[in-house]
Design goal:
Blueprint: H1 18-41, H2 44-71, H3 85-97, H4 102-121, H5 132-154, H6 161-185, H7 210-232
Helix pairs in contact: 1-5, 2-3, 2-5, 3-4, 4-5, 4-6, 4-7
């Protein structure tokens, strides 16, 4: 199995390198084109079916990545459990949005548009294409952005100011729960116990634990910024 390039470590990923920029461009293009296509060309049943298909693909990618790590004997419970917010959302998305719900989408919209986009721009990643981790990482993170845009535009679910505060409160529950899990496992999911080893936006926010407090403030600012397009069009 390890003879295939799909499984061989390559350390070919470079921040804002050719592969990274291509993925960002594809994410933007897919977000726009799928939403326009579904809105103009598909009936409501077709729109729902396409949305469900996106959620299933994202969940399969998370489960498939874990299965591959287990098969290769590389799985580490301190790093590979689907506990980061993007993996949790991707794994739960078919259940949460099989029948689109406004309150659920309002929470996910802010988490994805404010958090996942940052993960797309500054990924904690070493392997480049065609390694399976590269494919999984950008399929999941890019796909979450695509779905958030799709659900907002096609299903007509527009978040508002109240939903911003509901989403921010839900984020606090997630952070507290994950902090306790990190303490139990000796892990560092969501970088609550320390900064990632690769370059990230956290490098500009101070030392531990101060960058966590600064991150909270920045998260609220990001929530407001990603809300503005929705508010402006209502």
């Amino acid at each position: 199995m390890n003879d295939y390039l799909f499984f061989q470590p390559n350390e070919n990923f470079h921040l804002f390198g050719q592969q990274h920029l291509l993925v960002i461009a594809l994410t933007v293009a897919m977000s726009i084109s799928l939403a326009i296509f579904a809105k103009k060309k598909l009936a409501p049943d077709g729109q729902l079916l396409l949305g469900r298909g996106i959620t299933v693909v994202l969940a399969i990618m998370v489960v498939g990545w874990i299965a591959i790590r287990l098969a290769l004997g590389q799985f580490d419970h301190k790093t590979d459990l689907p506990l980061d917010i993007c993996n949790i959302v991707a794994l739960a998305l078919p259940l949460l949005m099989w029948n689109p719900d406004r309150r659920v989408h309002e929470v996910l919209y802010f988490w994805v548009m404010a958090g996942t986009i940052q993960a797309l721009l500054t990924p904690h990643l070493f392997e480049g294409f065609p390694h399976f981790t590269f494919i999984k990482y950008f399929t999941v993170h890019g796909g979450l952005v695509v779905f958030a845009v799709y659900a907002t535009v096609v299903y007509g679910i527009r978040p508002g100011w109240r939903s911003l505060w509901r989403s921010f409160f839900a984020l606090q529950i997630y952070i507290l729960s994950l902090y306790l899990i990190n303490r139990l496992l000796g892990s560092n999911y969501a970088y609550l116990m320390g900064k990632p080893p690769t370059a990230s936006a956290l490098d500009y926010l101070g030392d531990y634990p101060w960058y966590l407090l600064v991150s909270e403030g920045l998260a609220l600012v990001m929530f407001i910024l990603v809300l503005l397009p929705s508010v402006a069009t209502t």
